[in-house]
Every structure is written in structure tokens, then in C-alpha cells.
């Protein structure tokens, strides 16, 4: 899939886009995300003041090696944020859209399962055994009522132990590069 053909992508480019932005012919208010390859990060650093919060970072997942996969992730995924409960700091709240009223029940159920599986990957196993997700409430705006969802059908994704996250950072990338280069040096 070419990026130009993706309807969610507003602009694709390299050094010419950086030049266009420097001459103020480009407004970053029109973009939700700016995704760049790691080798372009140095070239766009002068645009940091223009981009403000949209400046790509590794932590936000917008500095990547595979731009096409990242665009698919950002356009096809859902972003969510956890907030602490204002009264009990051991609890948090996550608001995530899982469907609309016109969707079939199977699709909504699959979306809820995918959401619970992804949220469960953030469970801290160093704390021992505990219930990470204790309740799921469904809410359909603008109505203020909430429905408590029975989590029994989703128990397998709540009990699944996710793989530990890969270490991140420049040091790890350098270690991986050294490991890849050592066999070549030995062969040469």
C-alpha cells in the first residue's frame, strides 16, 4: 500500500516538506500526527518550535523505522489514556470507543476483547497476582447511564500473561547493531 493512496494521509515527503515548512507555507495545525523515519529526525529539528506538541518523538511512536506500518497503526487504531480515580488512587479510568449503535454485536464484542487484551499488556507482574481490570462499564453518549459489563466471556484475555515489553532506547539499538555486525567481521 503506497502512502499516497491512503485517504488518511494528508502529506508525504522528505526534505522538500521541511523546506516548505521553514518558509511558513505549511501549518501543522492541519495534521493530527507527524510520522518520520529516524534518519529524518535531525533534518526536522529546526521545525520543533513550529510543530510544538506534534514534534515526533520515540516515546509517542512517531519516530519509526517502518512508516507504512506506523501509518496503518495510527489510522486504524484507537488511542486511549488512563487517568487515576480522584478518590481511590489504586484505581484508574480508561475511556475508549468500542463501537457504535449500528455495529453488529459480534464486532463490538471483538473490539471490547481487543481493548481488554491491549490494556492487560500494561499489567505490572512485579506486583504479584492481582486483578488488573476489575470492572468494565459501557456508556453510550449523550445518555449518562452506564451498564456494568459481565467480564466472564472475556476472561481468557484478562488471564493471559502478555510478553514483557522490549527494552527501548539508543543503547539497545546500538547493542543490536553490534550483534548483527560481529558475524560479518568474523567472516571477512
How would you characterize the overall build of this protein?
With 188 residues, this protein is of the alpha+beta class. The protein has two domains: 3-76, no CATH class; 82-159, no CATH class. It has seven helices and six strands, in the order H-E-H-H-E-H-E-E-H-E-E-H-H. The strands form three sheets. A two-stranded parallel sheet has the order 1-2. A two-stranded antiparallel ribbon has the order 3-4. The radius of gyration is 21 Å and the shape is elongated. The two termini are 38 Å apart. The model is unreliable at 172-188 (pLDDT under 50).
Give a brief description.
The chain has 188 residues and is an alpha+beta fold.
Short key terms for the protein model shown above:
single chain; 188 residues; alpha+beta; 2 domains; 7 helices; elongated; disordered C terminus
